[in-house]
Amino acid sequence: MKKLIIYSILGVMLLSVTSCYKADNWDAPSARIHGRVIDSYTGENLLSSQNDWSIRIWERSWTASEPTNQNLPVKQDGSYNNSKLFAGTYDMLPYGGPFWPVTDTVKNVTLNGTTEQEFTVTPYLQLLDFETHLEGTNLFMSCRLKAPIRTGLPNLVEIKPFLSLTTFCGAGANSNIDIGEYSNKRIQINKSWQDEVGDSETSNVYTIGPLPVKAGYTYYVRLGANVNDANRKYNYTEIVRVDVPR
Amino acid sequence: MKKRLLAYIALLGALVFSQCRQLDLEPKGIMGEPELFGTEYGVKMYFTGLYNWLPIEDFQYYANDGYRKNDWGTEKNSQGAMSGEYFNTWISVDNDGFGYWPYDRIREVNNFIQSFPNYKDKFPDETFNKLMGEAHFLRAYFYFGMAKRYGGVPIVTEVQDPLASSEVLNVSRNTEYDTWKFIHDDLQFAIDNMLSDTKETGRANKYVAAALMSRAMLYAGSVAKYTESLGFKATELATQQGLAGMEPSQANEFFEYAVAAGKVVETGPYSLYNKLEDKATNFARLFLDDSSPETIFLKEYNRNSPRGNALQHNYDALMSPAPDMSSFVGAESFVPLDFMELYDMPAYTNPDGTPVRFDSRGDIRDGMEPRARGTMYLDGDELRGKTFSIQRGIYRTFDGVATDIQRGVNSAPINSNGNRILGGKGWTTEINGVTYTITGAHGNFEDQGGENNAFGSAFIRKYINPDMATADVRDWRSDQSWVVFRLGEVYLNTAEALYELGKREEAFDYIAKIRERAGAKVVRPAIDMTMTNIGSINKANYTYSLEKSLQFIRDERARELYAENHWWWDIRRWRTADQILNNFRQRLLSCYYVADEGKYIYLDEDNRFNRQWNASKSCYYEPIPWGEIGKNNNLLPQNPLY
């Protein structure tokens, strides 16, 4: 009797497993797209923060209805990568980042196997002459702003310090120590470039601090500045490592 | 025998078949159109369901999850908690909304508007017009609920045939301007056709329609005036096509509609609530007195109605501290200092920077604006036979200035080495042989989370019903009405619209009425036309400048309408939400006992949870529900930034 129960349970389990055996009738997506977002001024990758903004893609080989966009997040190093997309043709557009709006959607990029696609963008602002110095356990950061294109530049919003205990630093996901002691030290401007800086292409030095840091800790720090466009994302300085002495 | 059997069978057969002669019978338990639309009572029944679903942000509005939530935790997840109006640890801004899309209700209204003329001969003209007007009011309210979320939406005025071709069914969005104009036209129809009978407070009349018009048109005017400052035009298709956003040149039209609607309300039998001598109690009673002459429209609740129909709420149980004043989980929403200090407050810091010494904690109430005291409960106030007792901790000695506490961090020298003593619920400490309880009975406890733990110094008083016994303050036991429209709000709408139209003095006539009733020290401040771009809450840096007196009117709204679910919509329509909620870290007013002096001090601190609110510019428009776009591609383009 006991055996019978065990066998019938085993039988049912076997059945239930085998019924799931048939593979999906659609292959897993395996096309890869990757590339860099290049700063038109420096020719280097755009200084970014992790997942701060995305490249929008629309799958045009899907014609049953208007495709909604998918987003490819841009990484801190200014590159992006997604290896789990369906093969097909896509439109691509860098969207919502700290640069002059890109109006030329790259049309009909064919994804099949591995595809590389670069984008060149023109940042609103450049942050120059970034310097940090410590006074005891107080950190000071400074930079100058440069706006090569000032016609139509939205108002400056703020210059904000970002401090992190990992190498990820910026406004992106989990990339800064978000406490009042730091965010209250941001310099809020909310003026046009003309009112704040004048005719010059480059501003005077802005210094932010004192920012209290802990002895013996290693910080990764940078400054970001943004303008009042629709997205208000930051242009950044490079990331600097600061070792606070014990 | 056989014959008899055959006869029986024949008889049975005759019986069975004779009963089937009429298969097409009207079911007796279901009311059809003639019963509902043919009598005034039938129409009332038909409308009742629609009234229930009006987009009213009341006690049972779950900020990120919809109307009439019928969930015991709704009041914890209120709109005030979401937008930073309360200190509360539960939710924060969610730009995506909850897919509000009430075309099912709009269809019910359209069905009425389309078919009701068939029954015109059954009613006197006045009644027919009144009911037709009421239907337009209801439809406008549903469209208002969508327009403030999405901007332009499809205007559907017909009962669509579900079998029609997809070209007919797949409607496109109308522009935001057309949507607001449609709301205006529906409400104008309602005002022109409804009567001035105000007997049924839970039901619309001419003045209710005008009050909605006042609120909606002010919203539209602000959207038109300030959307430009967001910079959506450069990249956003929906804004370029006028679906999300209007032109500044269109603002005055809507402000003028708002003023006109306010004047209609003023012809009604309403006056500011002024029944009681004590201005603080008077302000608190205004929300509990169903016969208040200030109330224009109520949403009524009834605790004795069957459970499950969202006609009871939990406001008292979730806004008063347990166990003293609530027998349920208790309070979790507290008033941050940022909002407290909008009112007249006694100085708690001396000119030299040292904290003012108070003989008792409750002395903070002296010199506070009566309206503020009607809005919140402070230490020393009584509720349900108990006295509020709120203290954060003890300083052995305090020989510095208020800023020495460095916003309350433990590492500040004055807070170190045991000079500042904080504790859990009921903890005591001994100083020079005297035993002290470290905290108040209602907070602030270091060993507890957000529940029943006064962060800051105040609990909410507005809408709290003091006449309930504590034992009765439980889930689903509260049934005070929600005041949907009141004259105070309409005055503020009119004042703001007038000021936007450049009629400054006239605007402040209304502000003076509000401040007089509030018991404010300065009833009519001088008009200050200096431009500023700095707001009051969070010293927000707006992206545009406005006159200081206009900022004052905006602050007057925050004072008068605190905890009435207006603030979020206000900062949205002013297009300042992303700057006000830009690292908005609420400040809290904390009370300490200074042991060596035997006095109390109040200090401005940051909250211990490092709680903060942020909103991005995508908060100004919710996305058109993606599921609807999937069904109907004509709803594209999607709203900005999605």
Automatic annotation (TrEMBL), chain A:
The keyword Signal applies. This is DUF3823 domain-containing protein. Residues 1-23 form the signal peptide. Residues 32-122, 130-241 form the DUF3823 domain. Keywords: Signal. InterPro entries: DUF3823_C, DUF3823_N. It comes from Parapedobacter indicus.
From TrEMBL, chain B:
The keyword Signal applies. It is found in: Cell outer membrane. It holds the Pfam family SusD_RagB. SUPFAM superfamilies: TPR-like (SSF48452). Keywords: Cell outer membrane, Membrane, Signal. GO terms for cellular component: cell outer membrane. Its main location: membrane. Residues 88-218 form the SusD-like N-terminal domain. Residues 293-642 form the RagB/SusD domain. Belongs to the SusD family. This is Starch-binding associating with outer membrane. It comes from Parapedobacter indicus.
